[in-house]
Structures are given as C-alpha cells and as structure tokens.
Amino acid sequence: MTSPSPNPGTARTRAATIALACAGVFVAYLPVVTVVVSLPAIQRALHATTAELTWVSDAFVLPVAALILTAGVFGDVHGRKKVYQVGLALCAAGALLALCARSVQMLWAGQALAGAGAAALLPVTLALISQAVPNHRERGKYIGLWTTCMMAAMAVPPLIAGVILEHFSWRYIFVLPIPVALVTMVLAARLLEESRAAGGRKLDWAGQATAAVAITALIYGVIEGGASSFTHPRTVAALILAVVSGAAFVIVERRSSSPMLEPSLFRVPAFVASTVAALISFLGLIGFFFVLSLYFGVVQRLSTLESSARMVLVNVVCMALGFAMGHLMRRFSPRSLITAGLLIAAVAMWSLTFLSADTSFPSVAWRLCLLGLGLGLAFPCITGTAVAAVPHHRAGMAAAGNNAFRQVGGALGPALLGALLTMRVTETLPSRLAEAGVTGGQARQITQTAGAEGLGAVAGLDLGAHTGRALGAVGEAFLDGMRLCLNVSAVSLALAAVASCVLLRTRRPAAHTGGAPQEDRATPVTAGDALR
After folding, report:
1. What stretches pass through the bilayer (predicted)?
2. What is the C-alpha to C-alpha distance for residues 442 and 440, in angstroms, rounded to an integer?
C-alpha cells in the first residue's frame, strides 16, 4: 500500500530509484554498438578472422541471453540492490579486462564478464521501476524513459569511440563504462533501498543449466558452421546439443514448482507475437550493425568516426521518436504500431541492398533513418505487450522472458549474418577476382587470406600493380554477401510483422489464477494499456 500524499523523503527515494534504474540500463548497453563499430580496428590490431570477430559481439550477448531469467529471480529472492551492485561491478571488471586484452580470446573474456553484468542489470532495473512506481498508469512513462536511456547507450558511445579511434588505441573504447559503473555503484550504495518480491519464488538451477547449454550450443553451432561447414562433426554435434538441451529445458520447466519461464505463456498469442517480434528485431538490428560496420570499413574504407556518424542515425531517430510515442500509443493499438514498425524496418533493410562501394552519405542516411523510424515504432510496445498479455502475477516473468528472447536474437544476429556473409563471400570472391583480371597465385593468396584472416587482412597484402583491382574485387564480393544478409533480415522482419498482425488482434483478460488468460470475450488493447 502507498500513502496518498507521499512525504518528501519518499519522493526523493522514488526519484533516486528511477534515476539509478535508468543509469543501470545505460551501463548495461554501453558495450553493444561501441564494440560493433570498432570491429575493423579490432580485426586489424588482433589479426582476427571474421568468425573470431563474431564472437567479440556474441561473447557479450550470450551471457545476457543465458543468465537474464535467473538474474531476475535472484534479485526477487536475495535482493535487487545486491544484484544491481554485482551487475555494475561485473560491467566495470569486464571493461577493465577488455581494456588490457592482448589477444582476441582475452577480449572475449572481458566481453563475457560485461555480458554477465548486463544480464543482472536488465531485469533488476525494470523491477526497480515497478517497485518505485506501483501505479500502472503512471509507470508507462518511466518505462519509456528506461527505453530512451537504453537507446542513448547505443547512440552516444559509438561517436565517442570514433573520436578515440582517430587518436588513440582501440582499447580505450572500454574506458567509459568503468567510471560510469563505479560512480553509479557509489550512488546506489547510498541512495538505493533494498527490496525483494513477495511470494515463494525459488532459483531454478535445472532450468538455468539447460537454457544456458541450449543457447550457447546454438550460437556456437551457427558461428562454426559459417566459418567452416554446417556438415562438420563439431558443428552438427553443437546443433544437436542445442535441440536436446532446448527440449530438456521445456521438460524441466513443465515439471518445476517455480519455473523461470512458464511454458503456458506460449499459449498466449499476444505473448508469442511480442516475443517473436523482439527476437527478430534484435537479430536484424545487431546483425545489421555487425555487417554494416564491415561495409563502411572494408568497402568504403571509412574511419571509425565516419562509420559511427552514419550508423548512429538509426538510434538517434529511435530516440527522437520516443518523445512522440506517448501520444501515438494513446491513439493506436500495439498491433498497428508493431506491425507498421516492422514493415517499415523490412523496407529499409531491403533498400540497403542497393548500396554500392561509392554510395554517398545522403543516400545511406535516408535508408538508416527509415530503419530507425520502423524500429522506433515497434520497440517501445513489444515488452509492454508481452507483460499486458499475461496474468498480473506473471508480468515479471513475461518481461524477463521477452528480454531473454531479445538477447538471443541479438546473439544470433552477428552469428547468423556473419555465417551467411562468410559463405557468400567465399563463393563469389574467386569469380570477382577473375572478372577484375586477378588470377593465378595472387588470386589464390587473396582467397586463402580472406578465408583464414578475414577480408580486412587482404588490404595488408603486397599485390603490386594489382592492388587496386584486387581490393575492388574484394569489395564486390563483400557486397554480394551483404545483400544476401540484408535480404534475409528484410524477409524475417516482414514475417514478424505478419505474425504480429495476426496474433495481436485482441487481448484476452488475464485470469486471477494460474494458467494462461481465460477464454473470455476479447477486448481491444491500446499501446498505452500495454505499458501499464
């Protein structure tokens, strides 16, 4: 129960809690795009292959996807302030380890630590907002503020990374999270009150273990399949392990007295639709950033700052649209906004397939702004729709599950698109070199270098008079692979839009007791309702 007229101390505590929740999600998302835009510099410095570069991104996202459900339960049981502080400490430690990395494997370890910290912060920060703002009608605007801070963490740091890489080593892109996390920890120790969830939730270790194995095996299998072959015994074994572990997770959750993710939620059409939209939109977004950063670096040969200034347009438009979303969500249903947003994003992805080596900045910019418009319409409604579709006592589980699938999509994006990119480039590079008049030993040398060390390594070869033609052929082969990736992303987003349009027609009233919502007469739901 809350007092109708909270005293100034209570108001200050609420404001501090909301501010720290927003600071937490900002810290959690700092490494996502900052690292992606720096991949060409990291590849040159550490002599990493394309598959190894994929793991630089996925080493962060994998722990987030695998641990986010357990972190939410851990905060509910043992205290959200404790988990929040641990998350900040892990983010700072991961950034410090990456700052000192002398090999790509050490960089993976730093990214994994930071990812574990982000897994702790994401569910706890949302829980802190729910604790501070019990009124569901008022809570929506603070969830919107939380989303804006998430997008700010994906928009501002890449520009800072661009400036750093113009003048200093790539390592210093990891400096920013350290002081931000440490200062936030100090403030949280003084200002944040401890809280726990009412009820008898327990840690589901069997569910955690099977989920972590399934997610890790799936991502590993996709990455290794793209780097070598999907028929390689190691790849086949990983994918089989992913299927078996996924099936075991479902069995464990059905039998658990306190499941991390209740299987009955997947009988709710609106929850399924929002989860599919979350997975596919982040798969397309993070995978798109991975491919586009290589396009700017390998094909257009832009500096990191120039690449960042282009890629940041997507997040800037998302943030700008956030100020108008409150009005839009009062006027339109989540079905309309999510479907329209995903369709616009699909059209934007398809338009990017027309890029060439000499495409001008304005021609790239309007396509990126269109993508930001589509994602900006869809993102704010997705989590809220998942929460609104289930009984109140399962709202936290629905939000955590939706976030978990979003992170799985974020991990699959670089893995899947990186694998498609590598396969397509490997197929087309010999013919592109032949068209450019580069044959014989030099063609074999270029093909072998690109396959073993990545396309960026070709620029370091001494090719004499054939250098210009060889690099042009490499750029055309990369464009072949990029167009395949973008077409796959566009089709996926379009299918997610269709699923949202079909499954989000109505919302069924939530039941007061277990199971999925009751089969009562359906009632319309607005996007504003979805965020309550």
Report:
1. 18-42, 54-74, 86-104, 110-130, 142-164, 170-191, 203-223, 235-252, 264-296, 308-325, 337-357, 363-391, 481-504
2. 6
Under DSSP, the state recorded for 200 is: -
What helix, strand, coil percent values describe the chain, rounded to 5?
A: 80, 0, 20
Span 298-327, pLDDT tens digits: 788 887 778 878 888 887 888 788 777 767
User: Within 10 Å of residue 506's Cβ, how many Cβ atoms?
Assistant: 14
| Segment 219-255, tens digit of pLDDT | 788 777 766 677 888 889 999 999 999 999 989 888 8
Tokens representing residue 172 in the block: 């210093």
Cα torsion 177, 190, 73, 391 to 10°: value is: -110
Query: Could you tell me the pTM of the whole model?
Result: 0.74
Contacts for 237 with CB less than 8 Å, ≥ 6 apart? none
| Alpha-carbon torsion, ordered 263, 264, 269, 272, to 10 deg | -20
Q: Give CA–CA dist 50/44, Å, rounded.
A: 11
Segment holding 375, helix H or strand E:
helix 361-388
In degrees, to the nearest 5, what angle opens at C-alpha 191 toward C-alphas 186 and 194?
105
